[in-house]
Amino acid sequence: QKTNGWTDLIQSSSTPLSPPLWTPINIFAPQLPKFKVPDDIANSVRVAIVGWDCIPSIQEYRLQRRAFLRGAIGTIQSSSPTRVNERKFLLLAVNDIQSILDAAREGVSIIGTNIAAEWSLSGKALVLDYDTNESNANAHNGGIMDLNDEHYTRDSLPL
Predict the structure, then answer these.
(1) CA pair distance 46, 136, nearest whole angstrom
(2) pLDDT for residue 125 is more than 70
(3) How many helices (H) and strands (E) does the chain have?
(4) Does the pLDDT at position 132 exceed 80?
(5) Is 23 exposed, middle or buried (0-12, 13-18, 19+ CB in 10 A)?
(6) How far apart are CA 1 and CA 5, in angstroms?
(7) Distance separating alpha carbons of residues 48 and 103, to the nearest angstrom
(8) Are 45 and 69 in contact (CB under 8 A)?
(9) pTM, to two decimals
(10) b/e map of 102-113 (b: 16 or more CB within 10 Å)?
(11) Would you call 89 helix, strand, or coil by DSSP?
(12) Which of 75, 84, 116, 128 is the most core-located residue (most Cβ within 10 A)?
């Protein structure tokens, strides 16, 4: 709610900011299928998408989130084709690998996450080297290695 108050205050301010550091787009799960980019945002150079972390990362919303990003970024890019290379899109609080990959695929320039800190506190690490050997591949649960597993207790190999 504080974020909503702040963005409403910035957008309704009578003193124009020249140019604003980041123009926020507030997005929530119920808005996803029918969201339209407001006209005043379409000319922005730097757009921060706010509320992403409140949208569940389940499959149903994943497709809608990608469609939203594709549509919003496409609308903003097409509003001024000469400034395409200048435009930046920001997502904060992206806390799962699939969301990070989806955002990058759809053209988000800056993706903020604390996933490394969360995982390190719970003894997990990201594994990008998948082994074709089925027994080893199953040991890495979707690319996440559980370092608390007894198998790694005396493992001298670096991560």
Answers:
(1) 43
(2) yes
(3) 6, 6
(4) no
(5) buried
(6) 6
(7) 13
(8) no
(9) 0.66
(10) bbeebebeebeb
(11) strand
(12) 75
Average pLDDT, the chain: 77
DSSP letter assigned to residue 14: S
d(CA 59, CA 66): 11
**SS3 of 144, please?**
strand
Q: Which of 51, 49, 58 is nearest to 22 (CA)?
A: 49
Q: How far is CA 94 from CA 2, 16, 85, 98, in A?
A: 19, 30, 24, 9
107 or 26: which carries more pLDDT confidence? 107
The answer to whether 127 and 143 have CB atoms below 8 angstroms apart is yes
Check residues 46 and 60 and name the one with the higher pLDDT.
46
